[in-house]
Amino acid sequence: MKKSLSIIGGICASLLVGIFVFMCVLICLNPYNTNNVLLQEEIKKLNQTQEFVLNDIVPFEWETMYVFEKGTDKEYIEKTIGISNKFIKSVPNKDDAVSIIFVEQGKITAYPQGTKEELGYYIDIPLNKEKHAEVKNIDNLICYVESENGIAKIMDLFEYLSRIY
User: Fold this and answer.
1) What is the largest CA-CA distance in the chain?
2) Who has the most CB within 10 Å: 59, 61, 65, 157?
3) Which H or E element spans position 133?
4) pTM given for the model
5) b/e per residue 44-54 (b: at least 16 CB within 10 A)
């Protein structure tokens, strides 16, 4: 009996170590995964044609959100956000490419990147610079969401109103 309990304890300990190693590998692949997933979950909760304040759905600390257009290179991104980081990648030159970076006190807090289909959303904010849009959390940006084919399109309220009028 004691021997079988000892074996079970060893198996449980091995499983815990395995889970810990697996989680460390995931974090090393993208240390922003937790916040990326939290943001994705908040966006999924939004209803079709719902108005909201961006700050109310972002579930982590941030000062500035950058949205980069397709084809933007890594060097431009790093120069724009003022951070050099091995996880930053150039944005593919494809229509469905999404690259958003949230920064808080000189550190990246979230970095959703991929395709609209992979993320299930994208942010369509008019570019106020050459290849990117920049939003400060103090702006309390009012946004609107529309959903098409399971993909949420988030736009600022002015963009939405200009489309319907």
Assistant:
1) 76
2) 65
3) strand 132-136
4) 0.78
5) eebeeeeebeb
Q: What's the one-letter identity of residue 34?
A: T
pLDDT the model gives residue 12: 47
CB 102 within 8 A of CB 111: yes
Residue 50's pLDDT band, with cuts at 50, 70 and 90, is: confident
Element holding 117 (H helix, E strand): helix 116-119
Half-sphere exposure at residue 162, Cβ-oriented, CA atoms within 13 angstroms: 9
CA distances from 128 to 38, 67, 147 (A): 27, 10, 24
Tell me the pLDDT tens digit for each residue of 89-131.
999 999 899 999 999 999 999 999 999 999 999 998 887 667 8
Which residues are paired to 107 by β-bridges?
Answer: 104
Which of the pair, 156 or 89, is modelled with greater confidence? 89
The span from the CA of 122 to the CA of 139, in Å, is: 20
| Token duo for residue 96 | 């469905």
Q: At a CB cut-off of 8 Å and minimum separation 6, what does 89 contact? A: 74, 99, 113
Sign of CA dihedral 164, 94, 119, 105: negative
Q: Is 104 helix (H, G, I), strand (E, B) or coil?
A: strand
- In the β-sheet with 50-53, what is the strand arrangement from edge to edge? 50-53, 142-148, 151-156, 121-124
Question: How many other C-beta atoms are found inside a 10 Å radius of the C-beta of residue 122?
Answer: 22
